[in-house]
């Protein structure tokens, strides 16, 4: 069985739509258009693509979260901040992601919930210093296998709280492989447990535009004159 089969099983279990026990779980449908087909005079009422932002409270915190939310809104998304807790019911998380067009999250276990997203949607992972390899292997490649558009924001050395703690030119910040070579627990203690991030709104904005463009291209085309009118309005 593939990761797509596993995703279909999760969707069947959490969607509240049980199927006959004899039938295999069906793959998730493609994402609906970020901007539905509308007449020019209805354009102002068109729904903005929904973007979930997972936040963390103890480590790998986005220190300038209000600016990130504002950037998402200015890029044309409808941002929804979600603080996942251990007691958050899984069906609630599934419902939120199954209806989302995009997810922004700092690298961590919560990113695993991309399994609830539909093909054609966007996963934008914020990758702290020293976690590049884990970000791509654990979440980036699997997300692409499920048909998601995967984007990475790699935190620059000066954007990491480790720069203030150890120094911008320290080995910890400039050459994470030295710490990683000491084993998993040393790597985790420094890069996962002690690090917070400040996102560059300029660089982040470029990824938001790429995400929006992908959703626009992925949207189901309207037929006839309605399509032409809608596309002209979007421009």
UniProtKB/TrEMBL annotation:
Membrane topology per record: Single-pass type II membrane protein
The protein's annotated pathway: Glycan metabolism
The keyword Glycoprotein is assigned to this record: yes
Protein keywords: Glycoprotein, Glycosyltransferase, Golgi apparatus, Transferase
Location(s), subcellular: Golgi apparatus membrane
Glycosyltransferase in keyword set: yes
Domain (Glycosyltransferase 61 catalytic) ranges: 45-123
Entry-linked InterPro entries: Glyco_transf_61_cat, Glycosyltransferase_61
Gene Ontology CC: Golgi membrane
GO molecular function: pentosyltransferase activity
Name recorded for this polypeptide: Glycosyltransferase 61 catalytic domain-containing protein
